[in-house]
Amino acid sequence: MTQTQNEPLDLLGKDYYGLESAIRYWSVSQFKDFKKCQAAALAKLSSSFPEMKDDNTALIVGNYVHSYFESTEAHKAHIQKYCDLMISKSGKNKGELKAPYKIADTMIKALENDSQFINYYQGEKEVAVTGFIDGVEFKGKIDCLNIEKGYFVDIKTTRLPIDETVWSSEFETRLRWFEEYGYVLQMAVYQELLRQTYGKNFLPIIYAVTKEDIPDTRAIVFKTKEKLRYELSELEVLIKRFDEVKKGIRKPEPCGKCDFCKAAKLSKRIEVY
Q1: Do 243 and 28 touch, CB atoms closer than 8 A?
Q2: What is the CATH number of the domain that holds 87?
C-alpha cells in the first residue's frame, strides 16, 4: 500500500521502518551502520546509492517469527507483503515456502512448545518508544513489554547454537554472538528509552531461538548493569559526531572496505608494498 498524498506518516507505527522515520530518529541499527561505514550509512539515508542493497532474507525471516507472536493479523499482513520473496517460483518446490521460511516455521513451533517463553511473552506487543541519549533522539520498538512486572522481551533468531562465540575484529577476541552483533547495545538503549518514558528500570531479556534442524530456545536475562552501562557509554562517545554527519555538518568518513566504498571508489587506491 502506498502513502496517499494527504495521509500523514506514522513514523512510529506502520511507517516505522521507512526512510522518513530513519531520517527523523536514530535507532540502534542505524548507529551500527554508521559505526561500520559513515559514507555507506549516509548514502542509504539519502538513497544516493539505491543499487547497494543488503540481502534482507534474515530480516524478513526474523519479522516472520516476530509477527506470528504479535497477532494473527500482523502475521497475515507480513506474509502478504513478502509473499513473492517467500514462495519458490520454479523447481520441485514450486509454490512452497523457500527453505529459510520453512525453518522459520520450525522456530515458531519451538517457541510455541516452550512453556517458559509463553510465560515470559506476556504484555504489550510492538511498543514504540522514543527518548534522548546525549541530546540525540532515538526510537525503539519493543517486541513484548510487561509494564506491570517491569521487564521486556526481544526475540532473536540465530543461525548459531546459543552458546556459540564468534570472532570480533574490533576487540580481537571471541564474543558471544549477541555481543558481537550489537544486541547487548540494543537492550541497553531500549532500557534507557523505557526508563525515560516510564520512570523506572526494566529488565531486558533476549529470547533466543536457533535456526538449527531442531531449534534450541533460551531466555538470556541481562542483570549485569555494568555491561549495559558500558555499551551505552560507547554509544554516547560516538553519537554526536555521527549525528553531525547525518545532518550534513560533518563530512562522512568512508571505511574504505565495504561494497559501497569499493563501488564509489572510496577504497584504498594505492598500496606501497
Answers
A1: no
A2: 3.90.320.10
